[in-house]
Amino acid sequence: xxxxxxxxxxxxxxxxxxxxxxxxxxxxxxxxxxxxxxxxxxxxxxxxxxxxxxxxxxxxxxxxxxxxxxxxxxxxxxxxxxxxxxxxxxxxxxxxxxxxxxxxxxxxxxxxxxxxxxxxxxxxxxxxxxxxxxxxxxxxxxxxxxxxxxxxxxxxxxxxxxxxxxxxxxxxxxxxxxx
Length: 179
Ligand SMILES: Cc1cc2nc3c(=O)[nH]c(=O)nc-3n(C[C@H](O)[C@H](O)[C@H](O)COP(=O)(O)O)c2cc1C
What we know:
The protein has helices at 34-40, 44-47, 62-73, 120-138, 143-161, 165-171; strands at residues 19-23, 29-32, 78-85, 91-102, 108-116. It is an alpha+beta fold. It has a five-stranded antiparallel β-sheet with strand order 2-1-5-4-3. A hairpin with a 5-residue loop joins strand 1 and strand 2. The protein is globular, with a radius of gyration of 16 Å. The protein starts with 18 loop residues before the first strand and ends in an 8-residue tail after the last helix. Bound molecules: flavin mononucleotide. The site of flavin mononucleotide has 17 residues, from strand 1, helix 3, strand 3, strand 4 and strand 5.
């Protein structure tokens, strides 16, 4: 949203905690659990009804959110490392699982997300990758050009590793398992 200045203070949470939120089909928050409220440092009343970019951090590349929404529109789930910006300027890294919610007829009625604490190695590797993607985006003034450039760089980096985005995410967990 751009109205909160990052303080550089990192916030963390317990390995057995899950940050949960649900949105409507447009990404407007309809539910947030107690852990979400605590980490984001917004009262629940200021979270419900807000677009989910409420906690968008400027260090997040646009191309990752494009991938997220393209995947959801494709009716698929996605796992991604995301750094979020709390209302008090602190940031917190999560390993997010975001998925469509379907009704009995298979229609997408909204989306929901569970997030857990990522491994520190994953945060370090993702911080470096996302910094490069953001740098590629800053070379362009038009958002569409920025996304195209960072998406191309992301694809190149994954190709070098011989990994899909999903494999990149899971290769850096201590479980090392595929979803
Ligand atoms: C269920 C769900 C959960 C989301 N969780 C986050 C999140 O934790 N942090 C975030 O920055 N964006 C999250 N998003 C993506 C936002 O909707 C948005 O695309 C993103 O913040 C980029 O905002 P912008 O397009 O205004 O730059 C989520 C979207 C959905 C559907």
